[in-house]
Amino acid sequence: MASFVTEVLASSGKLEKEDLSGKISKMSRKVEDTKEEVCDMINKRYNDFLPSLQSSEELMLQVDAVSKEMDTLKNCIENEVCMKLFKVKVEPGLILFHEFHSAMEEFNKALLEKKYVDAANRLERARKSVGSLKRWKTSELPLLSALSSELTVQRENLIYHLGDEWKRLVIWKLPSTKEPAGEMSFLKVELKLSNACSKDGELKPPTLLSSVLQALAIQGDLQHKIKLFSQVLLKNMLKPLVMYASLSVRVTEQQGEGTTLALQCLEESDEERCAPSKVYNKLLLVLKTLHSHLLDVSIGDKKLSAILGELIWEEMSHTIIHECLVHSIPTNSSQLEKYNTVIKETEEFEKSLKEMEYLQGDSTDLLKYARDVNCHFASKKCKDVIVAARKLMTSKMHNTVKITPDSKLRLPKLPAPSSESKVKPESLKEEVTMENSKQLSAWSLRLPACRISESVQQLMELALDTLCEAVGSSTQSALQLFFTVRNIFQLFYDVVPTYHKENLLKFPHLAAIQHNNCMYLAHHLLTLGHHFRNHLPQPLSEGVATFVDMVPGFRKLGAQCFLAQLNVQRAELLERLSTAHNFCNLDDEDNYTAASKAVRQVIHQLKQLGTVWQDVLPVSIYCKAMGNLLNTAITEVTAKVMMLEDISSEDGNHLQTLCQTIIDEGPLVFIPLAEEKKNKKYQEEVPLYVKKWGTFKELVIVLQANLQEIVDRWADSKGPLALEFSSSEVKNLVRALFQNTERRAAALAKIK
To answer: How far, in Å, are 142, 233, 356, 659, 685 from residue 616 at the CA level?
Structure first.
């Protein structure tokens, strides 16, 4: 039609009537043909509308409406030539319908010839025509619904063909979902990239593949297709290659068939984790192969490799960091310099990805992580230290080592303090000379001989090693490591009393060890910070590096633990003495037996404790603890005897026998040292540790003394008896021991 109009306008400007009649006749025939084609198309879509119609009457009404519209359309098209020739305005809907019809014809032809880019473009042109028709005043025509439906069907048809071509060109072989997940299941993973349509020697992806990808892009379905591909690639090939050291990739190329990537197992590999360089090589082999045979295609202003890179990079780099680089971080500061190799390998890896356009930016999380090795080293070291410390704290406490006053921490030889950490001369105060002839004892600031848990000694060594790592480290790393050491001791303070709570109350041996452990830590915390402070960077070198503030807490913790055990032992002693029937009526055989048994049990308990704590507690603490418990026993016995109102001669003899047993055997529980000869000294010093020892001995004397002897020992409130008992207590004893006579009355009168 356009060529016809051009010919007419190119003529002299005159139209013969007979020529115009012929042309109109020819155009009428063309309109008839167009009408028949449209009717065929409507008939073809008839079944699509049938389910939505409610009755046959409604169907007939819509068919009549379409017929009327077609008649109108025919008349308009018949007059189109005349209207254009005589410069009459043509309805835009007619032009748009004609464009749609032409685009659909060209689409079908291109689709049959597998010219997918042309087909996608024609379909896009048809879509725009339908969109324009919807904005026209005839947008409510049933015909427009038919065109829209046809457009949808043909688009799905195109997407189906493109998907079918994609599946033929990119073929995955994956393990069954029923198989257990694991390293061996990935050995069945294969990816075949078919190049059956590519020319011999051609390195770029085949023309057909390029056409398929560009057509998908035009239709807006490429992103979805590549996203699905990226998910399968990550899950079944890229991530397993990072996670499993024994997996590698095998690339095979077959002439005329394509390239295959398959995962395989390295038999000689026994490494648990794969080194970063090996991981990078495996990943690059996969990505380079994909780039050469699949992704080196331009889609608009971007390469397909760039689209895939955007989809996989975040998750892939996250996997590399947490499954590879984390485990490659050195555990010792001496290995940090060697880590520069890993940083360079990471830079080369990213450089290769940028060359293939998988990466676009200059800085990534992967490279940042590798370069920030000092921080990660400190974080890893801190985590490992805390884990190791907690393991030591929850281990058995009864494995002990001997500590003597000569025992010292194996402090390392540290480098000279840096200029930054040295104290400036002007900040030093003037030296003050102290003139004092008295000097500190050689035993000052020395820990007394005792036994501590082997795990606590190892804990202190762990703290020392960590502080040594902090020396020479960056400021951030040094701060992390220093405060991790503080956290170790804080963790001990919180964890050990809770974790071992039951055993610390149940076993006196463990309570003594825990007491020593706390005192040992407190002792070394006094000077630990001072030893390292000048070798650490600021602000640690300015006084922050100290542990002195933790000393009172540890001393209190040790004391509370041991006092709790003493309270348990004290309660047991009192419970045993409670079975002595208050030492009353000992002339009764049963009562005497019960009282004698109670005394024997008390002595036995004290001897057992003396053996358990022997060579464990420091001598001074041992003697104080045993003296405290023995004092509890004799105080209770004294109190019971003093409460008696009537003591017969026989009762007095029995009481004197029981009390003498305590006096004779009590000192023998003082055996702080393993060598018996050395314990005699402490057994002779019992009065120093047992507060009521003198009182108890006076009581035994009184039980066997006569009235005159008692009066003599009172000696007008100046004798030894007066030092231990009040006058009222002595009088009560006299009344209980002696009958009411004049002699007793005279003796009582002298006791005042």
So the answer is: 102, 64, 71, 30, 20
